[in-house]
Amino acid sequence: MSKSSRYEWRDQQASLQERMKGFMANPGTEQLEAVLAEMRAYAAAAQNGSIEIPERFIAFS
Predict the structure, then answer these.
(1) For residue range 2-57, what is the model confidence (pLDDT) as tens digits?
(2) Can you tell me the distance from the alpha carbon of 2 to that of 42, in angstroms, rounded to the nearest whole number?
(3) Domain of 35?
(4) How far is Cα 2 from Cα 45, in angstroms, rounded to an integer?
(5) Number of folded domains in the chain?
């Protein structure tokens, strides 16, 4: 996995996590739709090959 691919994947993950945090902080229909749209975009990007998902990764929190 190239460095740029890893950065693209990381950015996509961060965006999804921010949407999830927003929904958890203020659950509602609008926030839920935003989370679902973000998840669909992530899945579509993975399926069409525009992002590469690493086989394994280490998360530091």
Answers:
(1) 777 778 778 888 888 888 898 899 899 999 998 999 889 888 888 888 777 767 76
(2) 18
(3) 3-19+27-52
(4) 16
(5) 1
